[in-house]
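Appendix B. One record, verbatim.
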Amino acid sequence: MQGEARKLQSSLVGLPIQERKKQLARYMSDMNQLGAGKLAEYVVHRRAVLDFLADCMKVGPDRKYRNEDVIHEVIFPRKVSSDDVPDVNETNLWIVDERLAYHVYLASDMEWRRSPIAVEEESGKDRADVLVLMPFDTPHAFVDCSPTTPQACQYTSMTIVELKKPMRDDYDPETRRKNPVTQVLGYIKTVRGGTAKDKDGQIIELHPNAPIYAYLICTVTKKLKSIVEEREFKPTPDGLGYYRYHDNYRAYIEVIPYNKLLADARKRNEVFFDKIGLPTSAFDNRQRAGS
C-alpha cells in the first residue's frame, strides 16, 4: 500500500484540484476496504481512550481520584523511552499535541540522571513526565536536520509535559517540588544551561532561538490558580487554562486543566467520530450542555 501511495503522490504533482480529486477518489476506491477498516479501527481507539480518560476524572469507588500514573500510562508508557516503544504512533501523544508524534527522542518519567536523558548536579533528581526532542519544527526550521541523524545538528524544538493528579491541591509557592510552575522552569533552565544530555550522552544543544513548549496538565485549584496568577500567566481565550511566554527562557508554558485537554482533543476528532457513526457518550453530552 505504501508503494502505491508513493506512486499516487508522484502522479498528482502539477495537477489541478479537480483532477487531483478524481485521482484520489480512484485510489481510495481501490484501497477502500483495507484502508477504511484500519482508519475506523484507529478512530474507535481514539474514542475509547478519550472516554477512559474522562472516567479517570471522576471519583472512584474508594472516594479517591485516579493517580496521575494511570493517566500517564495512557498518554505514553512510564519509565521508558521512545527507543523502547516499537511504534510511537500507537501511543496517545496526540491527546496533548498532534505534532508530538514527529520527534527524534522521547524520555518518559525517568530520573534524568539514570535515563538516557541525563542531567548534572542536583537537578538530576528531578524528572519531567515526558520530554520530547524535535529534529525540526516547521515554523522554526533554523537548521537542516534529519530524524535519522539528530546528532549531526542542534535540536530546534523541545517539548516538556508535566502531569499532576486530578484535583491535587497541596501546592506550595515556596517549595519547588510542590510548585509545578517552578518545577517546569527548572527543567527548562537545565536544558538552556547546557547540563542536560541526550540518549548518546551528548549535551543537548538547542539552537539559540529554538522554542521550548511546556504543558502542565492538572486541575486548576485555588492554590494553583494563585500560583499562576502570581507568575503573571494569562487566561487562555476559552477561559479554561492559562499561558505565558517566558522571555528569558524563550519558552511557551501552558497550564491545561484536564477538562480542557479532553474537550480540545475531542473537538479535533469529533468529525471522525461522526463520520463512522459512533454514538455520543456522557462526556459529549456534558460538553454540549455546557457550551
